[in-house]
Amino acid sequence: MLSFIGQGYTKSRTPAIIINHFLRNPHIYTPYTPYQEEISQGRLELLYKYQDLICDITGFEYATCSLIDQCQVAMDIMMIMKNSKPQASTILIHPHFNSRVAKTIELRAKQHDINITRDLTYDPNLLCGVFSQNPDKFGLINQDIFKGDIIKACLTDIYSNFIYENPEKLGYDICFGHSGCLGVPIGYGGPQPAFIATSKKYSRLMPGRYIGKSIDKYNLEAYRLTWQTREQHIRREKATSNVCTSQALLAQIAVTYGLYHGANGLRDISYSIKDKIDYIGNKLNIDTNYNFDTFTVIPESDLYNDLIKNNIYGFEHENRHISFTFDETHDKNDINRLCDKIKNKAYFSKKSRLIKKRNSNVTFTSISDNELDLQRYLHDLSLKDYSLSDGMIPLGSCTMKHTSPSHMEKLFQDDYQVHPYISIEKTPYIETFDYLSKRLCELSGFDKIYYQGQSGAMGEYASLSTFKNYFDSKCEKRKYIIMPRSAHGTNASSASLTGLKVRYVDEKNGLIDIEHLDKIINEVKDELFGFMLTYPNTYGLFEPNIKLINEKIHKNGGLSYMDGANFNAIMGYQTSEELGFDSCHFNLHKTFAIPHGGGGPGMGPIGIREFLAPYLPKYFTSTDFGSASICTISEQYLRKHSNLELAKMAKKNIDTNKKVINELKDYYKILNSDSEYIAHEFIIDVKGLPVSENDICKRLIDYGFHPPTMSWPVSKSLMIEIVESESDEEIHRFITAMKMIKQEINSNPNLLKNAPHTQRDLVNWNYDYSIEKGCFPMGLNKRKYWPTTNRVDSVYGDRNF
Ligand SMILES: Cc1ncc(COP(=O)(O)O)c(C=O)c1O
Predict the structure, then answer these.
(1) Which residue has a Cα nearest atom 15 of ligand 1?
(2) Is the pLDDT confidence value at 680 over 70?
(3) Cα–Cα distances in Å, from 219 out to 222, 381, 446, 729, 762?
């Protein structure tokens, strides 16, 4: 199969050192999002460098540390445009803008009553923003920038910026795109890292996480998550994005590819791609001066299908013109093959224009051109991070389970590296998705699985968009969605991105207050859109009234959505459908064993009832199967485990949870510990203790554990989830650690306040307790994890942004 499809997806040669270090190394692909800086310095450093790389290439000052997909970024940029000029309600999309991305912008625009125009002469005063693409969808360098004082966003191609003026120089305010061409295996279009970059003026509006720097107690520089996903924690229903899980692992691959080649190496690749275009230009006698990696032909006959018969793929536009894109991996034979097939079978449009080339150089430097140095650098970074190879990661709501390396093998097979616009029947993915759909339908009770959502949050938004399309088709103007205050922040932001208004229902003892629910339903009447609930809920309780609640929602014309983040407690023995929900998402990166990658990739397919299937958004992300390649991990996991086995695991999780609660309830205040509805995770309330939840977390690092989820959904709390892959021995070690920490809180809270203790402390020991107590609380000859950084000063980091 010879693909020249492009459209944001190009192949590259992933160096073996990168495959081994990132994709075959559980120490690198199993950590969680780097919320705990002291045990995440390795990937924080790489993600910081990724931001730098994107800034260097695009010319902007600010970039976040990866987003999910260029369509998702475009939709979020549209929200920024709208919020920055609320009095205008039209967005201009350049006629030569990527069609798929345009269609997803249209989806979000419709939900917010925003008009789309393609008219380049539109009055700028009536516009809130403009989307352009450079090079454009036909491959032409497009340096004409729209005039007017509005936000101008540019979808750009990484490599073109090494040769031509970058978006900042051209006068854009924001740029975005995919960076997968930097060494990320193409999979079936995903997972691929997306990026956004902007100037200081718009920096605070950017979606996603931003890595910055601070200092530790020895005044040593330390990286930290300067901005977490604010949409989740702070903005909620006021957010312009719902991103949570992103593409952290892929962004690390991309930047390491940059380190491997250095700026000069990347520039060479860029010129080699341009050379390929010029080579075919010469052969076909066409002017490629204005093309970077893509050229477009007007076919004379059914050229597109003729090429497919010869196993050659281009991209067919709506107007039937065909584009061909070259990448790092194409060689002369490939180009000659294409050339032979299209010669005399197409017209080539010829228009020359003045193209501005770059005069400033991208400065990103390689650490060395010595592969061994890179290997040592990566190893050194990896020592700074805590992963599942180090011990338990009991993060509540995150389901940090083991991924068997044997379930990852398909990721490395050549036939799984296919352009996403090749029809699935021609790829081995057909088996993956047939099997996955069958099992996910059984497990959820729903009739149809939809794969465009590449995270839990995107799944939420996909389902709510489907509900909205359904109501729109019946001309019902419903806009209120009810959820508990303890709902994950993405629930509220997904709802508001769909154009809905959130009403929070009260909870009593961790359960929905039915009286209050009735009151809200009565108030909103026939404007009730629906209900959203994590099940079991975010307190780790089974909601006993769930069927009754869903009946009430349905009786009043609404639809009900289950956030499936906690599916690990019900898999195999209870379906979302039988609980009365109409749709749910699965976090395949939680329940179905895709590793977390240090903050992504993830996959959030949704299950849905049959009557809603016609209303699923046709275009939601850039590919129909989202982060397809990692779905093979869930496929393999499910092939290994029957529904009965999954049910046993779910029961085991609940039993373990109850056991741990029982062991710890005399030591800590555990919320709802006497509830009869306990599921798979629990919350410790630390209010009233002489130490903070942060102190306990940092002390757990000394004991060799990753800290639990902090202060969510209850402030000053710890939320603990222990999964089925943890052994009794590891669980016992954790219980012992938690009990010992409680004794330390009573006897010497300094042990917690100074935590975590590092090797640097050893050479400067001036604490009022021994080294053994500080650094080896579980015994000198026991397994020991050494954090490399002392407590990071958040306040300093915020002040010195
Ligand atoms: C309850 C809940 N809902 C939704 C999400 C969002 O999922 P994702 O990070 O895959 O977008 C999370 C993530 O941790 C969660 O815990």
Answers:
(1) 565
(2) yes
(3) 9, 20, 55, 38, 16
